Please model this.
Amino acid sequence: MSEDLTLVLKAAFFSGEKHKKQRRRDADETPYINHPLEVAYILLDEGGITDAPTLAAALLHDTLEDTDTTREELAMIFGHEISNLVVELTDLDSVLPDQKKQRELERAYNLSDKAKRVKIADKTANIRDLATMPPKNWDIKRQIEYFNFAKKIAEATASASPELEKVFMRDYQTFKPKQ
Model:
C-alpha cells in the first residue's frame, strides 16, 4: 500500500472517529462524516486532485471547528503541512455571527492553492446538500442567501482549479434550493 493511500485512509478514519456522534442538520440527520468524504471525493473524482495532503485536509477540514481536535494533535498525527492546511480552512477567529461570512470571504482570497481547492469543493458539496436535503430550519430565503454566498467563495478560490470552478458553476446553475 502506498504512503499516500495510507495517509488518506488514516485521515478518513480519524475524521470518522471525531465526527462519529455528529449529524447533519437535514431532516434525515445524515451522518456528518458523509460531508468530508464528499468533499474529498469531489476533489479526486471531479477535480482530478490526487495530492494526498490535499485529500487528507479535505477529510479533516471541519475537525478543528466541530470537534475537540487540536492543531497540535493534527500536527502530531498528520504532520505540519496537513495541520497548516486544516488551520487555513478553519475559522478560529471569534467574530460576531453577522461578520462570519464576510471574514470567510476575505480569507478565501488569501488561501494557499491547496486550501482553495478544498474550499471550493466544500462549497460544492454544501450547495448539493442544500439543494437536495436542506437544514430543517432553513427557509427558502436563507437557502438562496447561502447559494449566493457560496458563489462568492467559489469566485475567490477559482484560480486554484479551473476544473473545480466549472464543477461548482455547473452545480450552482443546476441545483436550486427547495421551496
Q: What stands out?
A: The first helix runs from residue 3 to 18.
